[in-house]
Amino acid sequence: MYPSRVDITEVGTRDGLQAEQQFVPTERKIEFIAGFAAAGLRRIEATSFVSPRAVPQLADAAQVVAAAKTLGPTIAALVPNAKGAMRAVEADVDEMVVFISASESHSATNLNMSIDQAIAAVEPVAAIARDSGKVLRAAIAVAFGCPFEGDVPAATVSGIAGRLNSLGIGSLTLGDTTGMASPRHVETVCGKLFEDHPEMRLTLHFHNTRGLGLVNVMAGLKLGIDSYESAAAGLGGCPFAAGATGNICTEDLVYMLSELGIETGIDLDAMIGVAREMERYLGRALPGQLMRAGPRTRLHPVSAVRRAVG
Ligand code: COA
Ligand code: ZN
User: For a pocket test of ligand 1, which of 50, 51, 107, 146 has the largest count of ligand atoms closer than 8 A to its C-beta?
Assistant: First the structure.
């Protein structure tokens, strides 16, 4: 019924740190990425080659990629335009990810372009990817709803997917940027994509803004989707979407999948260790739950609690 193995892409240093108030020093970012690699993550979306004026937190993308490349996992980065793609190729990133919004208002706040302009901007990026032999993937933001416009029709998402597909992009992430998805909606949007573009490989990217993140993963698993994005400690959020909060949490996702008997290749204890380091460094409680409770196999001595005697 479910896939026997699931691929997880860690986005904590990209989706997570882009939303932080403070600039996290490059060495720290690299330490976190090294922690992800050591925990067994095979694909890491490490950073973005976007305008450093738009996202100053990720201005050190080139240094981050240079260091991350030595660690073993596939290193991916977001690129918004040809300038970003050239910077990414120069840094020798493994994979570039273009991102298109499914609503005009999020496209305007996030990319300062209309949807048509943003898709047109993919063409030169695709040419750069071809010439440099880099893998190019795409992501659709606000694919399950837009915080400015509300519902986004599945046909709109599928239409954008088709245009990306005709540019030679065969791997697509559906982003639930502000946690508006619910399980039935996941079935509707993914069902439409399967019907219209059966050859496209789908990855799902949920935020837990309304508490439905892992339930939406269950909906994806039932559809046979075997690739998900998540952030350590449940960090995350788009600064250009109102009300954005954390991604689904990597170690909570790993725990759920292991309880379902689904292989991820990720060491839960090691992942909890990195999440705790991130929490310690950022100096505030982060949303992840496993890093507080531990897995269900962590037992407590009876003497640790009060006895309820009347
Ligand atoms: N990397 C570095 N600098 C870039 C850049 C890139 N990828 N793209 C544009 N710039 C620079 C230009 O060179 C120009 O610099 P200058 O003023 O010194 O000449 C300046 O930014 C403005 O360029 P322009 O093409 O007019 O961009 P814009 O101001 O319309 O912004 C984007 C468009 C796409 C660059 C910007 O909106 C962006 O980076 N968005 C990313 C948002 C994001 O990461 N969201 C979260 C992920 S969902
Ligand atoms: Zn996101």
Answer: 51
Residue 206 located in a structural domain:
yes
CATH number at residue 206: 3.20.20.70
Q: Do the domain assignments include residue 310?
A: no
How many CA atoms are closer than 13 Å to the CA of 306, on its beta-carbon side? 3
pTM (global) more than 0.85: yes
Low-confidence residues of the chain: pLDDT under 70: none
Ligand 1: residue whose CA is nearest its atom 40: 111
Which positions are catalytic? Answer: 238
Cα angle at 194 between 178 and 98, to 5 degrees? 50
Which candidate, 109, 68, 94, places its Cα nearest to that of 238?
Answer: 109
CA–CA distance, 62 with 212 (Å, rounded to integer): 34
- Please check whether residue 203 is in contact with residue 172, taking contact to mean a CB–CB distance below 8 angstroms: yes
93 close to 157: Cβ distance less than 8 angstroms: no
